[in-house]
Amino acid sequence: xxxxxxxxxxxxxxxxxxxxxxxxxxxxxxxxxxxxxxxxxxxxxxxxxxxxxxxxxxxxxxxxxxxxxxxxxxxxxxxxxxxxxxxxxxxxxxxxxxxxxxxxxxxxxxxxxxxxxxxxxxxxxxxxxxxxxxxx
Length: 136
What we know:
- By secondary structure, this protein is α/β, with parallel strands linked by helices.
- Helix content is about 35%, strand content about 20%.
- The chain contains 5 helices and 5 strands, in the order βαβαβαβαβα.
- It starts with a strand and ends with a helix.
């Protein structure tokens, strides 16, 4: 793998950093943000993002490259637009925070809404359903 897109808490980041050190490796990560507020989704709360970013900035073997979100499921891709715009705004608001300069990537959008995500600034999309078909 090239990037872990689901770092959502400091203890996980610390453990990844420890394991990377043991392997003499560097791990690139994205911080997952839960913008939908759904319990079944992972991700840090938006208000906790600055503290998580700062905690990660002090880790020797972790490189935070951006942010990731999964919006609430909807048959209408336009309903995800607000979440995608919010993630971009969060990234932009952290530009001057410790570690904020490294937030170049925005992983948002899946097969059903990737075009909307790209319009809102996605640099990476996840299109497994379009490539492999629906899950059984």
